[in-house]
């Protein structure tokens, strides 16, 4: 039985430039899983969460753009083309769920769009830098508990071209996408060469029972000069089983005294 | 009175919104911004148990009881903020993001946010050309008492002003913008430090987006606060 709750996938990731890998996501997550060991490997240790430049910097494949004029030594996506900063990210994880358990793969933010492959199954993550993605992977987990995950991350659709004179937002093309706009450079900032492409926020696996709880909303209302206060709570509940779920929903509000002492 | 259980049946495959009966608190400790009072936080934990399975899922987060209002002050033309009915003199700063390669961590956020507290700030404005900041950013703003002004991803330069004028109708996909905005609101809305959502920097979003954001973000009638808080519920 897998432990209920969330487990972050923030170690053991490797990455490779898409133009240097001649396998597809189904092969990478079934017959040809990549590794750092094979000497012909184009794969490098990856930083997740992070961006493509963060991973290249960790592997010393680019100078640190924050020192001197080093940023000029890094090829801009406008000159290299989007494929140069389109990267594979790969990892493995264990998850041996029991009957009636459900498992989700969650990405809290990806820039800008991605294809996810898990054990030979493909799922598309739609565009947008500021949105969460949650994939129900219950039925595609590996029976032996060892799972192979590959994510192909694409840069923003409109990375733009930085005019010679620079300027705020470069040629403003990035404004066509729903993404951070500073990456084309501003009066206080040089351009970010990969436009912050990558799995830039946490990746996690969450295990639940048949009923999933999401997006709670807490609101407080005040009366009698803040002496009479109400806490209103709304949650989204999803019954992922094939039977009626008879549930009890508990809410507990506590103040932490010190250490592990709680006052309820 | 701070622990409550509700029972409900959920049909197979159903996805529902459920509002629990409200919880009453007498004189709870209120959350105040830096320099005005204590940042009292409560730990709210919600669990769902399935009779046939046991505990099925749970969620918890720090929560602060506070009422934040803001309006344009006719005398000054500036925006006047009140927290728990008290006008607040805003000492704020602009925030783009913590690191240009998005090397974001709890440690980094705590250091950045505490630095602003030590500078005696009580507000951080997240600029529209940067990020919708992350839950860890807000967590430390909750703890250190920094109100957050969070802009959506519109700037004058890239959306309809600038030289030459660019993207007069904003991003190409307005539906995508609203999907991202709604999901971001759901991600961040329970943090007591979140004080104000703002359409963009030096620019209002295209009309349809602006109308949708105003509609989605207006306060639910149930919580329309009476002008003073003496009214009984």
Protein architecture, described:
The complex is a heterodimer of chains A (264) and B (233). With 264 residues, chain A is mainly β. Chain A has helices spanning 25-28, 52-58, 77-80; strands at residues 5-8, 14-17, 44-45, 87-94, 102-107, 113-118, 121-125, 133-136, 146-154, 203-208, 211-223, 228-239, 245-256, 262-263. The longest helix of chain A is centred in the first third of the chain and has 7 residues, at 52-58. By secondary structure, chain B is an alpha/beta fold. Chain B has 4 helices and 11 strands, in the order ββββββββαβαβαβα. In chain B, strands 8-9-10-11 form a 4-stranded parallel sheet, with helices on one face. Classes of the chains: A mainly beta (264), B alpha/beta (233). The interface between A and B is large, with 94 and 101 residues.
Radius of gyration of chain A, in Å, reads 22 Å
Mean pLDDT of chain B: 93
Distance between the termini of chain A: 31 Å
* Largest binding interface between chains: A-B, 94 and 101 residues
Task: Give the oligomeric state.
Answer: heterodimer
User: Which strand-content bin applies to the residues of chain A?
Assistant: 35-45%
Q: How many helical elements of chain B?
A: 4
What shape does the CA trace of chain B take? Answer: globular
**What is the 3D form of chain A?**
flat
Question: Any key phrases for this structure?
Answer:
heterodimer, A: 264 residues, mainly beta, six-stranded antiparallel beta sheet, four-stranded antiparallel beta sheet, 35% strand, B: 233 residues, alpha/beta, four-stranded parallel beta sheet, three-stranded antiparallel beta sheet, 4 helices, globular
Write a compact overview of the structure shown.
By secondary structure, chain A is mainly beta.
Topology record:
The complex is a heterodimer of chains A (264) and B (233).
Chain A: E1 5-8, E2 14-17, H1 25-28, E3 44-45, H2 52-58, H3 77-80, E4 87-94, E5 102-107, E6 113-118, E7 121-125, E8 133-136, E9 146-154, E10 203-208, E11 211-223, E12 228-239, E13 245-256, E14 262-263
Antiparallel strand pairs in A: 1-10, 2-3, 2-4, 4-9, 5-8, 5-10, 6-7, 6-9, 11-12, 13-14
Chain B: E1 3-10, E2 15-26, E3 42-50, E4 54-63, E5 68-72, E6 79-83, E7 86-88, E8 92-95, H1 106-118, E9 123-126, H2 135-144, E10 147-151, H3 174-188, E11 194-198, H4 207-217
Parallel strand pairs in B: 8-9, 9-10, 10-11
Antiparallel strand pairs in B: 3-4, 5-6, 6-7
Helix pairs in contact in B: 1-2, 3-4
């Amino acid at each position: 039985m897998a432990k209920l709750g969330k487990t972050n996938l923030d170690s053991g990731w490797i990455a490779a430039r898409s133009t240097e890998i001649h396998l597809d996501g189904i092969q990478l997550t079934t017959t040809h899983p990549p590794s750092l060991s094979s000497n012909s490997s184009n794969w490098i240790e990856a930083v997740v969460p992070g961006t493509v430049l963060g991973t290249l910097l960790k592997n010393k494949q680019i100078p640190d753009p924050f020192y001197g004029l080093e940023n000029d030594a890094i090829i801009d996506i406008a000159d290299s083309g989007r494929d140069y900063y389109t990267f594979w990210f790969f990892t493995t994880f264990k998850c041996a769920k029991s009957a009636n358990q459900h498992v989700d793969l969650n990405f809290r933010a990806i820039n800008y769009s991605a294809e996810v492959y898990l054990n030979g199954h493909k799922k598309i993550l739609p565009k947008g830098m500021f949105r969460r993605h949650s994939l129900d992977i219950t039925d595609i987990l590996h029976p032996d508990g060892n799972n192979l995950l590959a994510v192909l991350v694409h840069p923003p659709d409109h990375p733009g071209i930085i005019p010679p004179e620079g300027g705020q937002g470069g040629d403003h093309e990035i404004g066509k996408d729903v993404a951070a706009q500073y990456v084309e450079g501003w009066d206080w900032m040089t351009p970010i060469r990969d436009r912050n492409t990558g799995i830039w926020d946490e990746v996690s696996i969450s295990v639940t029972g048949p009923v999933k709880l999401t997006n709670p909303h807490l609101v407080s209302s005040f009366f009698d000069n803040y002496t009479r206060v109400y806490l209103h709570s709304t949650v989204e509940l999803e019954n992922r089983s094939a039977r009626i779920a008879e549930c009890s929903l508990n809410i507990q509000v506590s103040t932490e005294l010190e250490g592990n002492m709680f006052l309820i | 009175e701070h622990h409550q259980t509700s029972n409900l049946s959920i049909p197979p495959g159903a996805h529902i919104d459920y509002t629990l009966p409200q919880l009453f608190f007498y004189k709870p400790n209120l959350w105040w911004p830096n320099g005005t009072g204590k940042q009292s936080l409560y730990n709210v934990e919600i669990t769902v148990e399935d009779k046939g399975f046991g505990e099925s899922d749970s969620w918890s987060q720090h929560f602060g009881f506070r009422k934040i209002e803001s309006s344009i002050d006719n005398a000054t033309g500036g925006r006047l903020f009140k927290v728990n009915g008290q006008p607040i003199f805003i000492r704020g700063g602009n925030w783009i993001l913590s690191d240009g390669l998005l090397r974001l961590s709890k440690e980094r956020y705590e250091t950045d946010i505490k630095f602003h507290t030590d500078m005696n700030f009580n507000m951080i404005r997240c600029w529209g050309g940067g990020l919708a900041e992350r839950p860890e950013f807000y967590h430390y703003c909750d703890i250190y008492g920094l109100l957050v002004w969070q802009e959506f991803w519109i700037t004058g330069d890239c959306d309809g002003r600038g030289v030459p004028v660019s993207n007069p109708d904003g991003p190409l996909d307005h539906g995508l913008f609203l999907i991202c905005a709604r999901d971001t609101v759901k991600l961040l809305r329970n943090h007591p430090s979140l004080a104000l959502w703002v359409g963009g920097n030096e620019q209002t979003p295209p009309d349809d987006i602006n109308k949708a954001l105003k509609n989605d973000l207006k306060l639910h009638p149930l919580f329309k606060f009476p002008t003073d808080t003496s009214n009984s519920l």
